[in-house]
Amino acid sequence: MITIKSAREIELMRKSGRLAAQTLDMIAEHIKPGVSTEELNTLCHDFIVSHGAYPAPLNYKGFPKSICTSVNDVVCHGIPDKKHILKDGDIVNVDVTALLEGFHGDTNRTYYVGTPSEEARKLVEFTEKVLHEAIGIVKPGMHVGDIGHLIQTRAEAEGYGVVREFTGHGIGRGFHEAPSIPHYGNPGKGPKIRKGMTFTIEPMINLGKPDLHVLSDGWTAITNDGKISAQFEHTLVVTDTGAEILTLSN
Ligand code: MF3
Ligand code: CO
Ligand code: CO
User: Fold this and answer.
1) 118-137 vs 144-157: helix axis angle to the nearest 10?
2) What integer pLDDT is reported at residue 247 of this predicted model?
3) Count helices and strands in the chain by DSSP H and E runs
4) Using CA atoms, how far apart are residues 36 and 168, in angstroms rounded to an integer?
5) Which atom of ligand 1 is nearest to the CA of 96?
6) What is the CA angle 19-221-166, rounded to 5?
7) How far is the CA of 211 from the centre of ligand 1 (A)?
8) Residue among 16, 74, 106, 177 to mutate when testing ligand 1 (max atoms within 8 A of CB)
9) The domain 7-245 is classified under which CATH number: 1.10.1040.10, 2.40.50.220, 3.90.230.10, 2.60.40.420?
10) pLDDT digits over 86-130, tens only?
């Protein structure tokens, strides 16, 4: 069932979304060579909790940490670890979900550690751009498949691979609600988008092939070809004429 949020519920989602985005703003200056992904986790955890919210990943289906930190060939759901030290030239995605006053705000960004390679910089810039292009076409009456079609077409034209196994999702009182929002697909297919729907778009774009596997920890998803993967995510609400991003920091 796809829920339509009321004006009051949307206002609460603005609050949780803003806090999640502010967490990503906060963490940016801490991302540098020599820092462990565990340190990023602790900083984000403390920031979220000190603002009266709960870091939704913590204990979610057994996930052991408060954020996901996905480095280089990790596509998503990387587990923060004190033994994982970031090094110059890495890319790291930090995915934050804040649960505040009963509603979730889910957003992620991919950061450079030190100086990126040219191909990493292009992939990361492309991924952020295609997320915003997709947000730009959202409006009532369109279909979920239109979003995936845009992302897939644009990514494949650049020679990139679009991840299939993980998708955007409805969000609200639930962390992951209906519908699923694939980042591939066909125009006019899938559920119709209506005013008041809240969902994420969160394309995972691979430098190489789309294929991935999950490590024996049950979470860490990595590319089969060992090439890097980038991701950006926002939580949106559908308005009369388009979409409003709920995960903005101001
Ligand atoms: N925040 C992720 C998403 O965008 C989900 C993380 S689930 C976790 O949907 F358990 F790995 F934290
Ligand atoms: Co999400
Ligand atoms: Co997320």
Assistant:
1) 150
2) 99
3) 4, 15
4) 28
5) 1
6) 65
7) 19
8) 106
9) 3.90.230.10
10) 999 999 999 999 999 999 999 999 999 999 999 999 999 999 999
Q: Rounded CA gap, 28 and 76, in Å?
A: 18
Residue 62 pLDDT class (50, 70, 90 cuts): very high
Residue 84 pLDDT class (50, 70, 90 cuts): very high
Residue nearest ligand 1's atom 11 by CA: 77
Cβ of residue 202 lying under 6 Å from some atom of ligand 1? yes
Q: Is the CB of 177 under 6 A from ligand 1?
A: no
> Rounded distance, CA 202 to CA 234, Å?
7
Domain ranges (residues) in the chain: 7-245
Sheet order of strands, 243-245 included: 177-181, 168-170, 198-201, 234-238, 243-245
Per-residue pLDDT of 192-206, as tens digits, reads 999 999 999 999 999
**What pLDDT was estimated at residue 242?**
98
Quick one: which of 201, 249, 195, 191 has its CA closest to 10?
Answer: 195
pLDDT at 128: 99
Ligand 1 nearest atom to the CA of residue 57, by list position: 12
> Ligand 1 pocket: which of 41, 69, 165, 175 to mutate (most atoms <8 Å of CB)?
175
Distance 31 CA to ligand 1 centre (A): 20
Q: Is the pTM of this model over 0.85?
A: yes
CA distances 145 to 134, 148, 180, 181, Å, are 11, 5, 10, 8
Q: What percentage of the chain reaches a pLDDT higher than 90?
A: 100
